[in-house]
Target: Kinesin motor domain-containing protein
Amino acid sequence: MPEDMPPAAPQPEQSAPEQGGRFNVCIRVKPLGAGGGGGEKERETAACTHTVAYDANTVSLVPRKAGVNAAPPPWAKGRPTTTTQGKRLAYKYAKKVIMPSEDQEDTYTDTQMDSLVQAFIQGYDVNFMANGQTGSGKTHCIFGPPTVDWTDPACAPDYGLLPRAALAMHHMLEEARESGGHTYVLVGSMLETKWSNWVMADLLCDKKDVYFNAEHEVVGAVE
Model:
């Protein structure tokens, strides 16, 4: 190796992520008072036939009335089920159920976000997403509650998965820079996607339209 060539960038001590398209699923039970578009009031109507029960490994639909059968909700299709005395239909999840009593730091740990960050630093493509209906807690989980102030360090305990992952990534790259003298460049974009007709808007440029080209690359987004 020529003397003027810099050494290879140091890699975190972390095994490579599992291959083969495997992914982990966690259920985050939204804390009451977390805010969101769905409102926070608990209400029962004549059309409400089931309540939801949960523990660390299972989400269950419990009939409120005798003789009512539990039908799988959309998020449970294809999941293994167990029935207790014909009254409860429980859905088993591969990873775990994150209780409403657990805070944002617990959620970050339970979803193993640090392993995704470390894999990204090693050069692997990684992805995480939140799926759920309006008001179910996606924004709270990914970003934090509506009251979070990004300029106030006192709000750090309320940070969701995304800012925590970004800060962890920045910390790892800064350690690599200080220990090995390497310089890294991070590039990012922020897009809003409407899957019904594949329309995308750039949130960093007054929601201007962007699009996929024939190679499935995003064209027109601000970096």
Remarks:
- The chain is about 20% helix and 20% strand.
- Confidence is low (pLDDT under 50) at residues 1-17, 37-41.
